[in-house]
Amino acid sequence: MTSPPSAVTGSRRGGSRRRGAVDLRAITVGEVMHPGVVSCAQTATAAELVGMMSSARAHCVAVTGLPREADDPPRIWGILSTLDVIDILHRAGS
After folding, report:
1. What is the mean pLDDT of the chain?
2. Which of 19, 56, 66, 86 is most solvent-facing, going by the fewest CB within 10 Å?
């Protein structure tokens, strides 16, 4: 089994280019993650979802479901990704 690459070159989030290799062992997830969570209700339409993903420049959206108790906040019910959107478009064109 080969070990994962420890260095990469190329673009970073936001399109800026970084010169040289980046040691992935020295970078925390917190340094590169998108802050916050983009979410929508399970009742949102596919068009609303696509608009939300485009506006937030997000590749995935957390889908909230019904809370267990009336005063609980909605819980994460699932994750929708750009691949799910591609699947929706593919099935709609069939």
Report:
1. 80
2. 19
